[in-house]
Design brief:
This protein is of the alpha+beta class. Helices cover 18% and strands 43% of the residues. The chain has a single domain (28-126), classed as Sandwich (Immunoglobulin-like), CATH 2.60.40. The protein has 1 helix and 9 strands; from the N terminus they run H-E-E-E-E-E-E-E-E-E. The model is unreliable at 14-25 (pLDDT under 50).
Length: 127
């Protein structure tokens, strides 16, 4: 009987941690996120270019380009994080060149927008 109680308490703690974690990392509702498209070109060993290819204009201070090392069983590790360099609005055809000696093929590049209602992923691809 004691083992069943311990297992139940453990499972309850796991569920509570998962629910709590999801509440802390919840993205903005889709209706609050801007509709913007991006494209990524270049070689991770040299320079990667992120280009706004259409959709809404964005405040440059609200946009970050993040590169993660995908790790299967533990949280992804951030390899690189930068905000858009040019102040003002990011409009179609605006580009950001990013280079970092830690970039490798297979890493995940994410363009994130940080608004009043929370963050939202606008674009995601693998290098």
């Amino acid at each position: 009987m004691r083992d069943r109680v311990a297992v139940a308490v453990f499972l309850l703690a796991v569920v509570a941690a998962a629910v709590g974690g999801s509440l802390l990392t919840t993205d903005a509702p889709p209706s609050a996120a801007p509709n913007a498209d991006f494209a990524v070109t270049g070689d991770p060993a040299d320079t990667v270019t992120v280009e706004h290819v259409g959709g809404d204009s964005l405040d440059s201070g609200a946009v970050r380009v993040l590169v993660y090392e995908d790790r299967p069983l533990i949280p992804d590790r951030t390899v690189h994080a930068t905000t858009w360099e040019e102040p003002g609005l990011i409009q179609e055809t605006d580009r950001l060149e990013v280079e970092d000696p830690r970039f490798e093929s297979g890493q995940r590049l994410v363009v994130r927008w940080f608004g009043d209602e929370g963050p939202a992923t606008l674009y995601e691809t693998h290098l």
